[in-house]
Design goal:
alpha+beta; four-stranded antiparallel beta sheet; disordered N terminus; Immunoglobulin-like; four-stranded mixed beta sheet; 142 residues
């Protein structure tokens, strides 16, 4: 591959990545590319809904984005570590990481009433069931 081809390839990457923080990190530290990783999660179901725990180590609260559409829950987050430029990294622990998770959920859940908290790299979500799907006792009329 010629130098001109390499330059053209880098320019197309620069154009595609413009205005994104993760790509700026990649450009400034070419030897440490970022990785995309599926976020690890745990689901506990009970009578009233789901408790979802998503592990996002190193991510900041500001980088976490949660969206829902058509019973699909999408979670993204970024880990952008900072370290002195003169450091030589010995492993991948300081790599920029893009976390992604998409879950197809039951239509019995009320995604609009979801509550979420984020602390120490762990996203906790409570997703209640729709009122009409909750168990209830029916009285007999005389």
């Amino acid at each position: 591959m010629s130098n001109e081809e390499i330059t053209n390839k880098q320019e197309s990457v620069d154009t595609a990545c413009s205005n994104t923080q993760c790509c700026e990190l990649e450009k400034s530290h070419q030897s440490v590319p970022s990785i995309t990783q599926r976020a690890q999660f745990h689901i506990n179901e009970n009578e009233t809904g789901l408790a979802l725990e998503v592990d996002l180590p190193g991510a900041s609260k500001e980088s976490v984005k949660i969206t829902s559409e058509n019973n699909q829950l999408s979670i993204t987050a970024e880990r952008n570590p900072s370290y002195p430029e003169d450091w030589q990294l010995l492993n991948d622990s300081a790599r920029a990481t893009h976390y992604r998770l998409k879950l197809n959920l039951s239509d019995k859940l009320n995604l609009a009433a979801t509550k979420a908290t984020f602390q120490n790299g762990v996203l906790l979500m409570e997703i209640p069931r729709r009122e009409e799907t909750l168990p209830r006792e029916i009285d007999i009329l005389n």
